[in-house]
Amino acid sequence: MCGIIGVVASTPVNQLLYDGLMVLQHRGQDAAGISTAEGSTFHMHKGPGLVRDVFRTRNMRALPGNWGIAHCRYPTAGSAYNFAEAQPFYVNSPFGLMLAHNGNLTNAEELKQQLFKLDLRHISTNSDSEVLLNVLAHELQRAARGTVLDQDAIFTAVRGVHKRVRGAYAVVVMIAGYGLLAFRDPFGIRPLVLGKNATPEGNEWMLASESVPLDTLGFERVDDVAPGEAVFVDLDRNMVRKQCAETHALSPCLFEYVYLARPDSMLADVSVYETRLRMGEALAAKVRKIIDPAEIDVVIPIPDSSRPAALQMAQALGIPFREGFVKNRYIGRTFIMPGQSTRKKSVRQKLNTVGQEFAGKNVMLVDDSIVRGTTSHEIVEMARAAGAKKVYFASASPPVRFPNVYGIDMPTRGELIATGRTDAQIAALIGADELVYQDLEALEESVRACNPNISGFDASCFTGNYITGDVDAAYLDAVEQSRNQKPAAQQNASEDDDEAGNTAQQIEMFVRRPGQE
Question: How far apart are CA 15 and CA 100, in angstroms?
Fold first, then answer.
């Protein structure tokens, strides 16, 4: 899960891209980067940390141009602390390309070998995004008429990418001298939204991981980029869309609606907020089957993403809804923080209890999900320390029993508390008196009720069924082995400022424009 943005406008876009990243910060806190272009020159600045920390006034001044892309990184492949893996990525052959990618490739190692042995391309990092960039570059080289690109060649290259690449990918790419390309994997696992801003100079275009940047920056949401579809906007701001996958089906990641996306986003014509309200209604029905509502004094959400579900559950059960936890918004999201010990330490820094909402009461805590269980255990302990008589716990999603390999950092089965355990065993481990999980069918219906055209979902972390068809036990074993062998040095984040690598880059290239031999 990362945040990506691409813009082609009539005025400088550096501030647009920065502001867009700020509202997508929840999708990645590890690193951020912006690339813009004017003429045949790319300008790029990227570095580790939050958006507000990566970019200073001097950096923004060094990013001129009326089109560009931006990325905030949440590490899913490679190293969480390797500056070289911050995006965007650049390659100069055969055309100058800048790429930002959200998702995770499941055949990255195979592609890496192909690129080296057959395509004669070298990959210098462990990032699957660099692999994807080089696959696209090779397909563009094959599709181009000599040194000249046109729209047909660009869409042909995307078709070639779809044939070779497996996994989840939503991508924005700058092609020097030509324009902005965006495309999405044939299953539409990771989101990508298209927006338009009508100006006296003509339409401006934006593509982003969620609809929120469009709303906040004055763009009108046009549509989601369809699974397998490519969108190309040239430098005169002419936009063309084309389906580039032989087979395609909308199967968005359920976790986007449960946790990842902002509640004010629209994804696949679905309001994330409305789906979370529906999750609460379904969860209330499940609670009635397990716990007598008369035994519950108060429903308390674990902020922030569970609040709509908890509110609707309380209303459906006729139980008071209260805010029992106060969140310190200057502490990073624990789900994003790498390292189990860091995650556990941060919980009590991040949340504090409102004592009177717990004292002497039977409380129902509601969270969006339970992944590793560390946070849930700490929160239950906090509720008991605040005086709760009984602590019930409800999850708005089903048990997470399998790794997600499509862009969410939970790849080790041993880290998932639900793997190989019953609900009662999980309740005991987190210290709850009773645990209630959402049913998968109810969760899917919560989303599909808002858009009946959704054919299916990526629910692999709940079911173990991987929709790309190329993930088996051997693959998961290899991922876990690689994760367990990560060098200790990669566990230490660099705190260095610009002088130590957080530097702006300007890349000059000669661009052969259409018709130029």
Answer: 18
Question: What tokens does 291 get?
Answer: 């716990």
DSSP state, residue 258: I
Q: With 50 as the cut, is the pLDDT of residue 151 above it?
A: yes
Vertex 47, ends 44 and 52: CA angle to 5°?
Answer: 100
Question: Among residues 94, 6, 140, 91, which one has the least CA distance to residue 511?
Answer: 94
Instruction: Please give the pLDDT value at position 378.
Output: 94
Q: How many CB atoms lie within 10 A of CB 75?
A: 21
Closest among 391, 402, 442, 140 to 278, alpha carbons compared: 442
Give the tens place of pLDDT for each residue, 309-333: 999 999 999 999 999 999 887 765 4
Residue 337 has pLDDT above 60, yes or no: no
Single-letter amino acid code for the residue at 135: V
CA distances from 430 to 371, 388, 426, 427 (A): 11, 15, 6, 5
| Prediction pTM value | 0.88
Q: Phi and psi of 100, rounded to 5°? A: -125, 135
Say whether 392 sits in a helix, a strand or coil: strand
Q: Decide if 2 is catalytic.
A: yes
Strand 270-271 to 266-267 pairing: antiparallel
Q: Which residues contact 354 (CB under 8 A, 6 or more apart)?
A: 322, 323, 324, 325, 326, 386
Average pLDDT over residues 463-486: 84
Nearest to 447 by CA among 257, 308, 187, 223: 257
Q: Which helix (H) or strand (E) holds 349?
A: helix 340-350
Residue whose pair of structure tokens reads 């990641």 in the numeric block: 253
The structure tokens listed for 92 are 């100069």
- Using a 10 angstrom Cβ sphere, with 0-12 exposed, 13-18 middle and 19 or more buried, the burial of residue 76 is buried
The closest alpha carbon to 33, from 76, 62, 66, belongs to 62
Q: What is the CA radius of gyration of the chain?
A: 23
Catalytic residue of the set 2, 253, 450, 461: 2
Q: For residue 451, give both structure tokens.
A: 């858009």
Query: Considering the chain, what is the average pLDDT of its residues?
Result: 88
- Residues 153-211: pLDDT tens digits? 999 999 999 999 999 999 999 999 999 999 999 999 999 999 999 999 999 999 999 99
What is the β-pairing status of strands 193-199 and 202-208? antiparallel
Question: Smallest Cα–Cα separation from 291: which of 165, 390, 192?
Answer: 390
The answer to whether 272 and 264 have CB atoms below 8 angstroms apart is yes
The mean-pLDDT minimum among 129-143, 313-327, 380-394, 499-513 falls in 499-513
